[in-house]
Amino acid sequence: MDSMKKKAHLTAMVFCGLIMTITAASDALRGVFLPQFRNTFSLTEPQAGRIIMISYVGNLLFLSVGGYLSDRLPRKRFIGGVLILWAAALASYVFTENYCLLLAAMIFSMGGSTMISTSVNIITPLLFASPAMLVSIFNFLQGIGITLSQNVGGRFAHDLKYWHAANGILLGLAVICFVLLMRLKLPDPEKKEKNGSGLRKVLKSPASIILILICGCYFIAEHGLMNWLTSYGSEHLGFTVQKSAFYLSLFFGGITVGRLIFAPLIDRIGIFRSLLIWSAAGAVLYTAGISMGKRGMLLIGISGVAFSIIYPMLVMLIGKFFDPAEAGTATGTILSIATFFDIGFNAFFGGLVEKAGYGKAITVLPVCAVLFCGLLFTLKFALRKSAEIK
Fold first, then answer.
1. Taking the model in full, what pTM does it have?
2. How many whole angstroms separate alpha carbon 237 and alpha carbon 4?
3. pLDDT for the residue 268
4. Phi and psi for 279 in degrees, rounded to 5?
5. Are 184 and 11 in contact (CB under 8 A)?
6. 157 with 35: CB under 8 angstroms?
């Protein structure tokens, strides 16, 4: 019986680790190949921005609709269904080369990957005795997926055939993940009684609006860099696509390593204090890097170390402002509303580049990094409940 239990735990660990790695790699490929999409389909900057924008529409749809369904369907059936939709999007990338199909598939690939990784964070405490350590490991593997995708993908982003090949590899690994999932035994969600909780109750909390603004500004700062730094470096600064992708991979490599290095310190310092320290350091490095232009790309890469703990701790911080029974609903609601920042940013950024140029347009990113940091300090020192959170 013990050996069967160990085998089941190992299968669960392999599934969670592998799916977090490949969904992250899939998301990162979009920004790396954006210059090639522009060339292949003869896109204007607004049309290129539409590729990024529509992917975050998928994020919003899957987080809102998927969040509702995930509490009402058997977990294996729900995750398996989302995995099939995500794999179907990858298959379209492998076998088609059409701008409209690319836009449609982005909804399912980005939305599906976000919902899958969110589900992994939900099921980890249900499957393992030491969930905190494994969440760190799975987030580390997620960072590995992003870094490898950007670094390796950047070397081959000059030809769209490598886009097809990369997604073919990810599709094969997705099939393996589906097989592993079918072998897992996942506890189904408990049926909840209606108690008046939901969107209206979450938004009544004094912290909610500030948390939405914090998450929204953070999304623009991190996701904006992931999606546009390769284009900014190659189109404006004169770097090759490979070199630009290297600096991007340095940023996410810093996030990956930082999550492992700083995990013990966060327990001692506290979630909120850690966020204040790391966000301030990240905002300074990030802003300095972009303001220095070509000479600042290394600083942008290094700022990833400061950004490393921000998103996982931000998700944990949101839950601190709500009762445990409402924390999941509140987190999903706040993150899905904050996704509108991603959608809005990518809807207008391409047009801004076309009108003002990359040099001026890119300043939106450090402004959001500074706003994110400033709003965190505002939340900490302006809201009474925040004083109780370390």
1. 0.77
2. 56
3. 79
4. -70, -35
5. yes
6. yes
